[in-house]
Design brief:
heterodimer; A: HU Protein, Chain A; 3-stranded antiparallel beta sheet; two-stranded antiparallel ribbon; 3 helices; B: alpha+beta; HU Protein, Chain A; 2 domains; two-stranded antiparallel sheet; 42% helix; 26% strand; disordered C terminus
């Protein structure tokens, strides 16, 4: 399921227009992104929690050339699956995994 | 940030919803996400990240408390892969590297 499919499904389940459903879904992820930008964790009971983890700079390697590449310090988001969602996911073991590849659609 | 603050964001920014409606809508969005993943379906939120599923085989493990050998059963797990946009948002100074994914 993609974000736009989530928006469509929301509109179907509620009395909201697609435009309103889109505003709602975008607002949720915008608010969450802003919290993480502030370095603030997010806790959604029954779903999971997001935290921001700091990483120190290190010297990496270009795997193709073997040359040293400096990697700057960075902050990365980390998601810990909540107990309830963990069980729900594990309960789907008998079903095939669907929803396309894992590729990040934001590139390009 | 808790769900209550997300509800507040819906209430003040989107507008036109009562506090109760805002709360119900936020609950519904997370419920639908959970239901999707519970069907074995991945969830891709463009600009935020992908919630992907992985099947793990049974493997040997240890009880970290007692050190006893135990079997870790096969299971399906959820992984969050942050979007390049979200990673860039958390690292404003590395904008030179991230510029190609900025909106």
């Amino acid at each position: 399921m993609t974000k736009s499919e989530l928006i469509d499904a929301m509109a179907e389940r509620t009395q909201l227009t697609k435009g309103r459903a889109e505003q709602v879904v975008n607002c949720i992820f915008d608010a969450m992104t802003e919290a993480l930008e502030r370095g603030e964790g997010i806790e959604i009971r029954g779903f999971g929690s997001f935290t921001v983890r700091p990483y120190k700079p290190y010297s990496g390697r270009n795997p193709r050339t073997g040359g040293a590449v400096p990697v700057a310090a960075k902050r990365l988001p980390f998601f810990k699956v909540g107990k309830d969602l963990k069980d729900v996911v594990n309960g789907s073991r008998h079903l095939p995994i669907s929803g396309g590849d894992d590729r990040d659609d934001d590139r390009g | 940030m808790t769900k209550a603050e997300i509800v507040q964001a819906i209430y003040t920014r989107v507008g036109g919803f009562s506090k109760k409606e805002s709360a119900d809508i936020v609950d519904l969005v997370f419920d639908m996400m959970k239901q999707t993943l519970g069907r074995g379906e991945k969830l891709k939120i463009s600009g935020f990240g992908n919630f992907v599923l992985r099947d793990k085989r049974q493997r040997p493990g240890r009880n970290p408390q007692t050190g006893d050998a135990i079997e870790i059963s096969e299971r399906r797990v959820l992984k969050f892969k942050a979007s390049q946009l979200l990673k860039a948002a958390l690292n404003p100074r590395s904008s030179a590297q991230a510029s190609h994914v900025e909106r």
